[in-house]
Design goal:
Helix content is about 15%, strand content about 35%. The protein is α+β, with helices and mostly antiparallel strands and about 140 residues long. Strands 2, 4, 5, 8, 9 and 10 form a six-stranded mixed β-sheet that branches. A four-stranded antiparallel β-sheet has the order 1-3-7-6, with no helix packed on it. Residues about 5-25 have low confidence and may be disordered.
């Protein structure tokens, strides 16, 4: 009987730790830190989550104070038709949120952030470190 009491006590201690890891342990790996392209080029910006979790991923251009939505997983939010999610098969399929950006223009230069939201679709769970896109004229 003491063994089961110990097992249940341990279980109730581990459940909150698992929830904290899932909520606060999420990391976003955004690479490369900078990319240089020419007008008209296509570029891929990488975003990989450390773990799969509920809630959308969105890509923004600009600082936290003045962000412009570039891409969202939500079908109702498609602000720039030149941007699409790269499709990868395999074990990282659900954690890879890289995007492909076509027909690059000079005004596309700037810093792009991959942002993971919680399941409420409003609260930010994690931010990427940013990818600086430099655009050269042809």
């Amino acid at each position: 009987m003491q063994y089961w009491d110990y097992a249940f006590s341990l279980l109730f201690l581990l459940i909150p730790l698992c929830i904290l890891k899932g909520t606060y342990g999420l990391m976003i790996y955004q690479t490369p830190p900078s990319i240089s392209v020419s007008e008209g080029d296509t570029v891929t910006m990488n975003c990989t989550l450390s773990e799969e979790s509920l809630g959308p991923v969105r890509w923004y251009k600009g600082s936290i104070q003045s962000q412009q939505l570039l891409y969202s997983q939500s079908e109702s939010e498609k602000p720039d038709q030149r941007v699409s999610k790269t499709v990868k098969e395999g074990p990282t399929r659900n954690t890879d949120h890289s995007i492909q950006f076509t027909a690059i223009r000079l005004e596309d230069a700037g810093v792009y952030y991959c942002v993971k939201f919680k399941s409420d679709k409003v609260t930010v769970a994690a931010n990427g470190s940013g990818t600086h896109l430099y655009v050269n004229s042809k």
